[in-house]
Known about the structure:
- The strands form three sheets. The protein has a seven-stranded mixed sheet with strand order 7-8-9-10-11-18-19, covered by helices on one side. A six-stranded mixed sheet has the order 1-2-3-4-5-6. Strands 14-13-15-12-16-17 form a six-stranded parallel sheet.
- By secondary structure, the chain is α/β, with parallel strands linked by helices.
- The protein contains ten helices and 19 strands.
- Residues 1-43 and 380-388 have low confidence and may be disordered.
- It has three domains: 3-43, no CATH class; 49-191 and 328-385, Ribonuclease Z/Hydroxyacylglutathione hydrolase-like (Metallo-beta-lactamase, Chain A); 197-323, Rossmann fold (3-Layer(aba) Sandwich).
Amino acid sequence: xxxxxxxxxxxxxxxxxxxxxxxxxxxxxxxxxxxxxxxxxxxxxxxxxxxxxxxxxxxxxxxxxxxxxxxxxxxxxxxxxxxxxxxxxxxxxxxxxxxxxxxxxxxxxxxxxxxxxxxxxxxxxxxxxxxxxxxxxxxxxxxxxxxxxxxxxxxxxxxxxxxxxxxxxxxxxxxxxxxxxxxxxxxxxxxxxxxxxxxxxxxxxxxxxxxxxxxxxxxxxxxxxxxxxxxxxxxxxxxxxxxxxxxxxxxxxxxxxxxxxxxxxxxxxxxxxxxxxxxxxxxxxxxxxxxxxxxxxxxxxxxxxxxxxxxxxxxxxxxxxxxxxxxxxxxxxxxxxxxxxxxxxxxxxxxxxxxxxxxxxxxxxxxxxxxxxxxxxxxxxxxxxxxx
Length: 388
């Protein structure tokens, strides 16, 4: 089954459209066994969404498939949407994910992070206990995927974390027609409208021109954000070497191995005091406020995050140059996605669900909040901050 089969033509209540009427007439006339089979298949009530996927303390559980999606504790079978540690944990008996996500998990947790790995690429399908499982790009980080769960005529899509804008380091989000769309809501308030990435990179490059004697330290999470900032800098015309904290080196190599060209990258270690005037160094957010940052020449501290739209957060972190760059969908991307998919129901997993619930009510869409716990705000990924 390929990507062309993702489109769904029926809803999970009784079918009362022109097609069902045609099939009913075909069945009544008994013109062929095929028509009768088609009518029965379209007429029977589908499985209820809450019987296919349901929130539990361990995470989103699929009872018919006996599996969990992004579980927060070790389980027998896990479907993992992407490699950030709040979604991808070690200790599961079996893990199904894209090969890139599996490689990220092995890099971060070691080769023994699970007893059984099952790679499933974009557009691919597998079946477990009669439940079909597919993967579609989520556009969040390298290897990130939406998990498609299909059973007894019902299609549910678990977005994981996602964004809709272009990212030169990963495959873009692809909308998947479905009955129920399960979405994050990290930036689920109208105030969160993120500026174009090129604008934010332009501000960084402009600051380098204004302060040529000062090092520019950019806080960025080790998986996804750091590599994206590097690629965006290259696209903005920055051809000089970029220096990186040790916590980023292994994932940078993995991205390079996966075909993401980062240009000349040098370790920000063993440097003389007051080094890197006029240069860029990238490290995990915690590093720009600790002793690692003290070796650089009068550093300009920057932080790449969607939360830099909130000035109080920037002040709290002591950030001189806030860069509003997020790997999550902003308000417009979230609501545009809902309008594009027009699912029967929207389920919201984590984040600012109240704003989206109200938006759905105003726009005549059925929505509910799952209030799953254990997922962090914009990849507050503690494992990423550890230097290896």
